[in-house]
Amino acid sequence: MEEQYEPLIVAFCCNWCSYAGADLAGVSRIQYPPNGRIIRVMCSGMVHPNLVINALTKGADGVLVCG
Amino acid sequence: MINLTINDRPIEVPEGTTVLEAARKLGFTIPTLCHFEGLKPYGGCRLCLVEVTAGNRTLLTTACTYPVAEGITVKTDTIEVQEARQFVMDLLLSRCPEVPALQMMAQELGLAEPSYPKGDSDCILCGKCVRMCHEVQHASAIAMMGRGAKREVMTPFGEFSATCRTCGACLFVCPTGHIKDIGVISGKTPIPRLSEFNAGLIAQGNIYKTYPQAVPKEPVIDAANCVHMLTGDCGICSQTCPAGAIDFDQQDEKLTLEVGSVIMAPGFKTFDPSNLPAYGYGRYPNVYTSLEFERILSPGGPYHGHVVRRSDGKEPKKIAWIHCVGMRSDREGEHPYCSNFCCMAALKQAVIAREHIGQELDMALFYMDMRTPRKDFEKYMVRIQNQGTRLIRSRVHTVSPAADGDLEVRYVTEAGEVADEIFDAVVLSVGMVIPPDVVALAEKLEIPLSPNHFVEASCFEPTSTFREGIFSCGAFNGPKDIPQSVMEGSAAAAASTRPLAAARGTLARKKEFPPEQDVLEEPVRVGVFVCNCGLNIGGVADVPDIVAHSQGLADVAYAQENLFTCSQDAQAVMVEKIKEHDLNRVVVAACSPSTHSPIFQDMLRSAGLNKYLFEMANIRNQCTWVHLNEPDKATGKCKDLVNMAVAKARLLQPLDYITVSVNHRALVIGGGVAGMTSALALADQGYVVDLVERKDSLGGNALKLHTTWRGGLVKPRLDALIRKVTGHDQITIHYNARVEGVSGVVGNFTTTLSTGAAIDHGVVVIAIGAEPLRPEGMYLYKQNPNVLLSLDLDREIMEKSERLKTAQAAAFILCVGSRTPERPYCNKVCCAHAVENAIKLKTINPEIDVYILYRDMRTYGEREALYQRARELGVIFIRHHLADLPRVEEADGRLKITVTDQILQRPVSFTVDFLTLATTIIPHQNAPLAELYKIPLNAEGFFTEAHAKIRPVEAATEGIYLAGLCHYPKPLQESVAEALACASRANTILSKDFLQLESIISNPIDENCDGCAFCVDACPFQAITLLEYMKEGNLRKTVEVNPIQCKGCGSCMATCPKAGIYVAGFTPEQLEAQVDAALGLI
Do B929 and B907 have their domain in common? Predict the structure, then answer.
């Protein structure tokens, strides 16, 4: 049987809100699929559009900018 | 030490270690059912079979009983081993086919169904329970009885054991769930140990953390229930704790401290409604106290945030709250005061309950007066009411049981009719009570308390007890909510340190770090430290595998695992490893940088490294905790997260620490009571203070106040305060002055005044007060000389005006211009002020008729006594509605007032000699000052604090503090406390010589920048300015970043089209490298 395709999602999370939210999800033991890779940024406003485009062209299945 | 090889990996372990323990150290999993740390090896279940080769002999044996020997090799996963384990499992599963734990293990061993006839037991005779009871508990309450097929775990002679202590250890260790009820062993029913933090709603183990965020965070053992401490037996925890942290010999210690002052903040307990027969608390399971319900609403509470009933676990669809339980009552066992916080707490619970249960939740709040006088509380209440929550003005008569655990609430409606309504659950809003031990302590310290056991204090020194050197704050000073308690805590700090100013900082210890080594020219050598966090990480992910993976990454010079990376001993080891391996970049794979990076950054500095050469991989909060059931995938993700952290760490550069010097001078704007109090508190701390007053004299609104609510005369205290301020040689007063220009930031402001003076200062306290609304056109104000404002009446009382003695009748109208859609806030002061003046009128002339026309009587806290006293004196209280305001007409030289009485439901008229209007307090023109200091105003024009609860006197901009009426209307006592709190917060800046700022800020790259100024507009902190300069005869444009104002958000970096600006520590290259690592490209 063919294995189910597992997408890889790059997430840019703001240090002050969504990154803290991801920490809180851990503290609350909320279970979610292990397909995301979080990159901490000081504000979602620092994520240059090039960074998003590069991630997609290099093979990310999705990019999440959270802030 | 003994050397051996397990699955081709060498390991060195102490003599006496078993093969099982050695294999686990290397991270190999061996299945077992009968092994338990702290119990002697038993070899009962035979599942841990491994292949051991010693010399030229190879045998299959149980890993848990086989001690290591020099030179042996062990295989834990050969075909033979697997087959042998499968066979053992087959036998176990045949005996106990219905045990889920066995079914799961069998599946892991590749066995779907047992091959032998199925039995019906659920005991595999592993003997864990018997050994636990015998070896550890020394109770021997159970034993193995019978032989062969008849062997079973039993009590002696099958009778109840006399030696069983119902400790439950047998039940705890049983792997199959065979022991279900300790009652069958002991004949006794164990009493659960209830969680105090969760209001006794659930049981809690004997070793526990009070709550997840408890400080200190270490778990404690309840000595009163610990078998070891009571009998000397057990002690199993000390054998299983991997950190060896259990110390049974710890004793209570008596410490003697020599201190200059004492702050009492002993808190409160909630009223226990068990003795109120009418509400059925303790008899009907679905009647809760508000504290119990608070826990039920909490995600960390007993039901993990699911709102369910105690009786049947069903979600309630209809909930009633009963306010003022045990409060505002003169009955025996109840309390006459109001608890101040509960109305708002009930409203908040209603909001959260609806969030949990859904829009369909039907809620009714039964209240006496809705007391929501604090900032923004009134708006909250109105919003909740508009969303359909029923606010019913009624004191509930009884709560009685109805069918299926429901409850019938009997009350009298506003129309005077008796009504019965069925609810699924009832919450009793219980008030605040000072517990007897606190009262006893106060007696011992000779601190005078009020009849309600709250601290007696002067309104001008709200945090000073009447005993010199002892200060107090929080609920002990009178019932209050969180924001006020936080604020008062700061106030008490200011008051208590005032006499100790000379000693400030003398006991402070400063941490010294070695000089930092220069790493710029050195090749990158990354050290990776992977944390097990006990079992939080190691119990899910394969930590040794992650370490092995890290060792293989480019530029990684060293990697190791730690049990707890944040522990003190691990820090010391890491400092040694950094030095030993010349590491110059450090990655810690553990928890969250938000909570732990400061600890590790300090560790780097102790090792002589710049603290910015550090990166964390968040493999706990964002990996093992959220992928508990996918250990392999979690391990894979952990490796990726380490890759990403290493990829960034390679590119990290040391950053300069930014420090700015602090100007120790303070500016206080406003010469009222709040401003003067702050100025004096700061000057007494030794700082030079500039006090700015727009008028030609000090005193502000307090000049017009007769007494405080406690009855103390204002004038003598105010005069004394003015004398102290004007006579203080550290205070310069600028009369007839306004602020006209402001520049700079915290530590270094410059403020220019209308007088021309330019003042350099480190902090500013804004206390510019507010003013009463002059309600032109309402209630004959300014048209009839007998219509006064509240402060006018105070003046007449002070001046002993003749008409107060001769008048036959007087009236007050409250909420004039407030609690309306136009000004949706309560003034907090008027109810108590009016009632207090009504009492004064009655005292001056007992024959006078006094009417108070109110909407909700908000004599909160101990002010309730004034309301009680006024009623005893015969003051007539008439409640009216916003929709049906009183009418005032002139009639034969007097004033005729007509109002619809809400109890009689009909208009009543009476004539008075004079009328006092309690008009709303409105802010001055605050906008210009707000603009100058860049701090926000709320919709009503009052200054906004940084955070209502945790930073109640700080403005959003650092170094600016707010006190008194300019923040929100409040009584004098609270303004004074805020002023002290401001001084306390300001002291945290002024007491420093330098401020250290975060170095993660923007840095322009001059050669890339062409001065297009896109970033200037994008910067939300106005930290970037455009510069023009001449270079080689040409005009060059570039930008400059103010390191104090920049918060490192990087909006500039994302906006710049020319890569002309970057955030240190988050450069485009570093972020790109993390992306590449996440995608497996490096």
Answer: no
pLDDT profile of chain A (67 residues), mean per 10: 84 93 87 97 96 97 96
Does B635 map to a domain? Answer: yes
B162-212: pLDDT as tens digits? 999 898 999 999 999 999 888 889 998 888 899 999 999 999 989 998 887
Residue B957 pLDDT level (bands cut at 50, 70, 90): confident
User: How many domains does chain A contain in total?
Assistant: 1
- Name the residue among B212, B627, B1051 with its Cβ closest to that of A31: B627
Residue of B nearest to A35 (CA): B637
Instruction: Out of B860, B890, B920, pick the residue that ends a domain.
Output: B920
For residue B260, give the 3-state DSSP assignment: coil
Is the model's pLDDT at B422 over the cut of 70? yes
In chain A, the largest separation of any two C-alpha atoms, in whole Å, equals 44
A44 located within any domain: yes
Residues B105 and B257: their CA atoms lie apart, in Å, by 58
* A17 CB within 8 Å of a chain B CB: no
- Asked if residue B444 belongs to a domain, the reply is no
Same domain, yes or no: B402 and B273: yes
A5 and chain B in contact, CB less than 8 A: no
Number of domains in chain B: 8
Q: Do A10 and B1075 touch (CB under 8 A)?
A: yes
Dihedral sign, Cα of residue B89, residue B94, residue B96, residue B98 = positive
Contacting residues of A for B641, CB less than 8 Å apart:
37
pLDDT, tens digit, for every residue of B737-753? 999 999 888 999 999 99
Contact list in A for residue B594 (CB cut-off 8 A) is 15, 19-20, 23
Residue B952 in domain:
yes
Query: Does A20 map to a domain?
Result: yes
Residue numbers in A near B623 (CB within 8 A): 34
Smallest CA–CA separation between B1002 and chain A, in Å? 11
Angle at B629 between CA B626 and CA B631, to 5 degrees: 90
Predicted structure pTM score: 0.83
Q: Is the pLDDT of residue B840 over 60?
A: yes
Is residue B93 in a domain? Answer: yes
Do residue B278 and residue B377 come from a single domain? yes
Tell whether B37 and B147 lie within a shared domain.
no
Q: What is the CATH number of the domain that holds B635?
A: 3.40.50
pLDDT tens, residue by residue, B316-333: 999 999 999 999 999 999
What is the CATH classification number for the domain harbouring B133?
Answer: 3.30.70.20
Determine the Cα–Cα distance for residues B343 and B372; give it in Å rounded to an integer. Answer: 7
Tokens 């002690």 belong to residue = B235
Q: List the single residue in A37, A48, A54 with the smallest CB-CB distance to B1054.
A: A48
Best A42, A53, A61 residue to mutate vs chain B (most B CBs within 10 Å): A42
Report the C-alpha gap between B500 and B507 in whole angstroms. Answer: 12
- Distance between CA atoms of residues B656 and B639, nearest Å: 31
Does residue B949 register a pLDDT over 70? yes
Q: Which residue of B has its CA nearest to A47?
A: B1054
Close Cβ partners of B828 (under 8 Å, ≥ 6 residues apart): B373, B374, B858, B968, B969, B970, B971
Domain final residue pick, B108, B139, B155: B108
Measured torsion, CA atoms of residues B90, B94, B95, B97, in degrees rounded to the nearest 10: 110
Note whether residue A45 is domain-resident. yes
Residue of B nearest to A51 (CA): B1072
Partner residue facing B1050 (CB), from A22, A27, A46: A46
Verify that B562 and B602 share a domain, yes or no. yes
pLDDT tens digits along B53-80:
998 999 999 999 999 999 999 999 999 9
Q: Say if strands A62-66 and A9-14 run parallel, antiparallel, or are unpaired.
A: parallel
Q: Which residue of B has its CA nearest to A61?
A: B1079
Q: Which residue has the higher pLDDT, B242 or B314?
A: B314
With CA atoms as reference, the chain B residue closest to A11 would be B1075
B159: containing domain: 128-186
Centre a 10 Å sphere on the Cβ of residue A1 and count the other Cβ atoms it contains.
Answer: 3
Kindly report the CATH number assigned to the domain that includes residue B857: 3.50.50.60
State which residues form the domain around A28. 9-66
User: A46 in a domain, yes or no?
Assistant: yes
Q: Which residues of B touch A60 (CB under 8 A)?
A: 1075, 1078-1079
